[in-house]
Amino acid sequence: MTWRQVFLRKIGYLAGIAVLLGLLAWLGTPPAPSLDREKSSPGGLLAQVRDKAGLTPSQLGELDPGGEAVQLATLGMRGVAIHILWTKAEDYKKKKDWTNLSAALEQMAKLEPHFITVWRHQGWNLSYNVSVEFDDYRERFRWILRGIQFLKTGIRYNQREPVLYGDVGWFYSQKIGRADESALFRRLFLDPNDPYEIHGGRPPRDNWLVGKDWYAAAEKLVDEGEVLRTTPLVFFSHRPMCQMNYADAIEKEGTFGDAAIRAWQTSLHEFRDEFGHRELPSGYKFAPFIRMEEEEQIRREIDELAQQIDAMQPGLREEMLAERRTDLTPEELAAVTTPAEQRTPLQREIAAAMQLTKLRMTHEQVARRIRDPEKRKQALALAKKAVELERTADAIAHNRNIINYTYWRRHAEVEQTPEAVAARELMYRSEEAYHRNDHITAQELFYQAARQWREVLDKNPDLQYDDYVVNDLAEFINRYMKILDQLDTVFPEDFALQSVVRRFVRNLAAHESLTRLMKQARQAVEKQDYAAARRDLEEAFQEWSNVLDRAKSLKLLSDRETAREIMDTTALYDQVLQALNDTFPGQMAVADVIRIQIAQSPQMKRTKQDMAQANYILLQGTGPAQLQNARKLFEDALPLAAEILKQYPHLMRLSERKTVQELAELHENYRRLLDTLQEALPENYPLREFADKVIPKLLQRQSSSTTGTGSGS
Amino acid sequence: MPIETDIPQLDHWLLPSLGIWVIALAGLAILLFLLGWVWALLHGGVIGAPRLFRPVTRRFLSRTWAAIADLIFISPRRVGALAWLGIKEAIRRRVIIVFVVFLATLLMAGWFLDPASDNPVKLYLNFVMGTSDYLILLLILLVTVFSLPTDIQKKTIYTVLTKPVRPSEIILGRVLGFTLVGTVLVVGMGLISYAFVVRGLAHTHQIDTSTLRPLGDPVPQPDGSTKTMQQGWTTKVNGHRHRVFIDLQGHARLEMEQGHTHLAQADASQEGGFVLGGPEGLLTARVAKYGNLVFRDRNGFDEVKGISVGDEWTYRSYIEGGSEAAAIWTFSGLNQAELAGDSVPVEMSIGVFRTHKGDMKRGILGSLAVRNPDTGLLVELEVFESKEFSILQLQIPKKIERFAAARFVQRRTRSPDGSVTFSPQQPPASDPAKQKAFDLFRDLVTKDGRLEVWLQCLEGGQYFGMAKPDLYLRVGEGTFFTNLMKGYAGTWCQMVLVIVFGVTLSTFLSAPVAMVATLGILVGGLAHTFLTQVAVGQIFEGVETPYQAGPIESLVRLVTQIGVMEEMPESVAFHVMRAVDTGFRLWLESMSYAIPPLSQMSFAQFVMNGYDVSGELLLIDLLRVLGYFVPVFFLGHFFLKSREVAA
């Protein structure tokens, strides 16, 4: 290579360097702001693009010279450093080294202050994963606040990031308000001394409301045009739900009256009037934006259009429907014709399926069948419009389902009524009395609460068919069983919420299956196929046991009608056993229900009372007068016992051992008394059959079960 | 928090380590001798002329003897002179620059170190000790590996070699010189660190009078007036504040926060009426006596480990509550004279695992008992409430008059054949339950000074987790300054090893290669635990996996996406892969013995968690240094000698 070539190549390199540097300067010159507008410069292309997109550090949030210096100190290895720190943080968490974990998070935040995932993930880590590692609930609470604090620091650097505000709202509301320890956490949160310095010198504010404020701040940013990196539907529902949860929480803690009513009114306003009217993306191309509250309006419009179509040829729709019904099987027809609220779960499924298949009738189909061509044309135009509206309404309905919109709206509507608030108050006071061990007051308040709920249900009959409401109330009734258990009593016959229990039971799959089994068993009995009937009935008892597991209150007769159904099953089983000449097996799941039912009958109550009195007299002494008094009491009880056996004939086949034992005891004590008096059992002894046939069987069963246990052990 | 590593005990560590060391040293010596001999024979042309065997061997033996004599007859004066040369060279290379870097790092540290953290002492010490450790080790590495090669390259070494100097003296002189310079660095950094930590954490508060509220009912006083106790808060400094209690006598007491409290002195001139002192109990050096831990399972049989509650970190083992399960620490060498006071403080920090919520407002109840290992007498001292991640102190009185129960308890061990052995065999003649008081040293500590401490969880369905260092007897209190210096003694030991390796490797390698090799040893030493785990194929602690952590297997699993918990299909290739991997692992295992365990030589964990570094631990570190120094120094001597001959 000659000298000249070398020289030219060097010149070429220099020129290349100059061009590249020039390009770099053009692209990367930093902005030079100045008070004097003429002197200020917007900087290079990159700086201008950054500025336009709102990505300059000063636009994102606070500037941190320390963090910037550290970022520079990593010499472009920031990503590597973050990765190492992240791994270390995970290791510190695993090894429960909280001091170093906090330090590692701090360093990460300094290195990547605008990396939203770091703030969100690690904030969650602190509040949710680290906090639960602590056994002491106060420590847990402190770490939840640490997670929140971490997120708030994130907000300082990223002041226009809605999800960070949303996360703070979620932690304040859900993490504190929904944890297992929420009662304890809320007490710490609302401590007037504010030992955790949450409220910054202001009076303590409820965690749900604090959460709501943060959601409001997040919503404001979105409304101002910031990008929302989450599902808008769910995101916007959080704020009104915080208010709803607040109202719920204050009632749980004993605040009622106007305050509760106001809280619920605000809930409804924010949920229905604000959130319900907010324009939200639907996820469907044909109706990209929807409003939750518009569904009813659209459905009304569709109905009007349908009426207009129907008016063009009256009776056509019914005619078409009748045609379609001819295609249905008897089972499908039954499901469709049963009123919606009376359908069993299976019938509900069938009916829904039929609406989508065999009975599906579009407005267009109706319109096409209109005979008059002119009217048909008009009707088709109307039908097209109706179909479009229907699609939009369905899109809204789908979105509503995601967040259970209809339920929460109705919930807020009902809960704000003075009756509902009064019912909740009675429930609360009843619970309080229970914890004070004042069981009588607790019981009384509970019944009042039940009556109050009845009033609410009567005023809002649709609630009775709302599964959520029914489940809620069934849980409430189950909870109050413990009061009745303490008092050794059962639900009164006029218990106001029996229909709710019934509805709850009917909704259970087990109930549906036992209804089918009972039907099969009855048919088998008719055909005198007792073995098959027995199989079905034993399966039915298994289902009853499943029902009783879910609706525990039934054991204390919370719904007499369902209890009677159990007795019906028992009676049918008894009939089968009688035919097979067998007795009831021991350990029946429904035995408790049978025993309690019998124990609640006036005859059984009286029999037990007489027996107890007679035994007491005999314990005092066995003089002639005492023997006579006891005899009289026994002879009063015997016909009542006979009446019980007549009323519950299955007792003769040992359907409920404890009751049979009690009756056997009555017979035995009376017989011993007569022995003492050297008399034989009278001719017309009311329990003769029982004594001759049932008692030996009982003894036999008892001895076999004892032997069985003995050999087993 | 307690130490979370296994603490070696000299009596358990010394003999096995010494055994391995002697074998390794002898093996190395024989290997070198044989290699040297073969090399001498080949070099001496024995293959062509077998008659030269004898004279060549004789010459080899005489030279070997001369080399050994060189090693033995070292002149301290010459070594001293060479050490001075080393010092001058180090100063010429501006090692002082490391102080500037260290100070600059400390200035920047303020951005990261949060005095409001839960445990600021740990954070500060972790930082200063970690930074100084890395700085010193890297600096000393650079100084040592470039020293000899540069001398050789620049031929300045001849100014030394022309004098009657032995290679061993050159190496020893360099090592000594650099060690002296390094010592000054370590001491300097130790002092700066001390000042940084003490000043960084020094603070005081004031009592915030606006927060003071009456506590309890007013108490009538003799003069007819009434007084009420008060409670409130101090002002917030360093991200925390203390709860204050003022009693009826007007004495103020501050609650512990961030591991410290402050003393309050009444001073009417101050706002709030009190002046508060500096932090108390923040910088500590607890002198702990550790015992050996075994577990007792729910049926009362001894086990090496407790139950796993599914925690990813298997460091702690758990015992089941409401059963016979217990954690048993056996302490030895206890004597009355060593343990002053009326009682022996026992400190613990145990993990809690709940399988049901239980009473969330309080901790889980546990019991502490002591047992005589010889007689089987067990005295239940007290019931305590657990508190995780903090240290709970209980007392074992020397005269035990108040106790929950006393009974005879046998330890049961089940051997693999199913037979059960009891310890002790015989119950005592008198029923311990009838005894009203016990003397700790007469009734419970054995004649040779052993004592068992039993910990049990009292609530069914709940678990306590523990590891050996989680419970210890607190036998005294050292000063923080001394402890920090002892911590830096660990760094010093690491530094000496780096110097020894650096100087030795530079005797036969060029400077850059020696640097890489020493750096490899340094990194390997700092990751020694991981290295050993990989070498023995136990990368996942406590997890059964078919994965054996070999390089080929790892690669195959990565490419074929076969997870580490999945068995690989068996084939010829599989067996070849395993064989090659085993070779790699054996190599790694031998390396793990050759590379000094630098990570285990650091005492930072002790210092930052507030535990005294015992003389025993220091001695173990010094022995480790000596153990590596001897063979590496010999090697260096022989290499330099052969190099000189070759030159």
Helix content of chain B: 40-55%
Q: What value does the Rg of chain B take, in angstroms?
A: 31 Å
Would you give the CATH topology of the largest domain in chain A? Serine Threonine Protein Phosphatase 5, Tetratricopeptide repeat
Count the E strands of chain A.
Answer: 2
What are the low-pLDDT stretches of chain A, counting only 5+ consecutive residues below 50? 708-713
Q: Major sheet of chain A: order of its strands?
A: 1-2
Strand content of chain A: under 5%
- Based on secondary structure, the structural category of chain B is alpha+beta
Widest beta sheet: strand line-up of chain B: 9-8-11-22-14-15-18
Main sheet of chain A, how many strands, which sense, barrel? 2 strands, antiparallel
Q: From the alpha-carbon coordinates, what is the Rg of chain A to the nearest angstrom?
A: 38 Å
Structure in words:
- The complex is a heterodimer of chains A (713) and B (647).
- Chain A has 713 residues and is mainly alpha-helical.
- Chain A is built from 32 helices and 2 strands.
- The termini of chain A are far apart.
- Mean pLDDT of chain A is 88; it is low at 708-713.
- With 647 residues, chain B is of the alpha+beta class.
- Chain B folds into 3 domains: 10-201 and 481-531 and 601-646, no CATH class; 207-280, no CATH class; 288-477, Jelly Rolls, CATH 2.60.120.
- The longest helix of chain B is centred in the N-terminal third of the chain and has 35 residues, at 167-201.
- The model of chain B has no long low-confidence stretch (mean pLDDT 88).
